[in-house]
Predict the structure.
Amino acid sequence: MEGVHTLLEMQGITKVFPGVRALDSVNFELRAGEVHVLLGENGAGKSTLMKVLAGAYEPEAGKIFIDGKEVKIQGPSHAQELGIGIVYQEFNLVPYLSVAENVFIENFPRTRIGLIDHEQMHRAANELLCSLGMQVDTHALIHQLSTAQQQMVEVAKALKHKSRILILDEPTSSLTEREIEQLFSTIRELKRKGMGIIYISHRMQELWEVGDRVTVLRDGKYIGTRSLKETTPDELVTMMVGREVSFLFKRDFQTPGEEVLRLEGVSSTVHRLQNIHLTLRKGEIVGLAGLVGSGRTELARTIFGLEPISEGKIYLFGREIHHSSPSLMVQRGVALLPEDRKNQGLALILSVAENIVMASLERLFPRKYIHKQKEKQIVAQYIKNLRIVTPNQNRQVQFLSGGNQQKVVLGKWLCTEADIFIFDEPTRGIDVNAKAEIHEFMNELVKKGAAILMISSELPEVLGMSDRIYVMRERKIVAELSHEEASQEVVIRYATAADYASQTAGCVE
């Protein structure tokens, strides 16, 4: 196309892991000043292709061209020298270093005598973050920041290298709607300056807001490239999965049963939760909506006994709970599927089988001896029922796709025979087909009488799956809405009453 400059071309890229052909002769092209969406189910090869480009993997075959010249990327540092920056979905930050130190960790600014120039480092870090519309104390330690703020630090790290090619892997998965729009504004400005951006996302609705073209991978193979102006969500999903998939949330709404969980005036000095009143009944899904930092995850952890309450009462099946702990809550039939499945929900180096039975060992094997044949039969049933894609039960969970890892977490808690499930971001970072399967499993659970408290940052998911919705803001519940009362506008109005201007105060253009 006349006047279009091709920044990057990848031809016939092939990558093989033991027993798996992760990429099979994949092609990809990126132009200057465009956002090119890379789409596909978990396990389609998206992240592997980007790790090849970022120098983390060496391909078995294929060629890479930058500005029309063939390059052999020798490693991550060489990729940065070539102007390639990447922001991984899994953060790569040092928790107990400051924001500024994380941004410049690979190349600290120095004084004339070779010492770290702290003043220059903090000034430059602040300028980068303000360019993203974020006011963050650059002296703060990373572990003190919210997930959204940590995401912005990752983006700032990539921009620090003056990248011409920027890879964003699920960049909005932990951001609020306003933070997403701020990120999109930054992306549009980077496009205007001629940067090429590769954008990986499972949030179909946001692709048309920021993308220009889309390339679809399936099972490690190149399926096709389309202009987003000339395609539809249905066409892209069909390309991704090889068949038509409905976008609709499938809920069989029914009359809820008896109350199984009640919170009366629950407060927590640890998480600053304030006067929480909440109920949950058999056979219903209750959504918990709110901005990142509103206290949703903290409330889930408090209910599960991970943190003590300072005031109020918690009732399970009509009985008040005293001196709670996770192990006691599991015995009482409560399960928590955490937001961070890799660090909190799974033991990645253990097998599928070991992960599924780990929370049920005392129930399944009261004599302290693990009967391997019994374990094998139990695990086989969960693999079949949850449609977990794994070569065998002994496969380490770290080698499964995100969607299958989430199914293993679900299998672990189903194995406990829980009655109450707390789902914290149940479909974050998994593809559209896996999302539909998780929603189907949730629907089946409540039809059988289970109760689900669901936290999600995706409003369509909350609205489509919930019988009732509680909205949180500033560590308090500010609204309770029925399925009929709730809409995207109403939920956002309750969730965003706090002054957003304070987030960008102090940034100087």
Remarks:
- The mean pLDDT is 86.
- DSSP finds 19 helices and 20 strands in the chain.
- The longest helix spans residues 177-192.
- The radius of gyration is 24 Å.
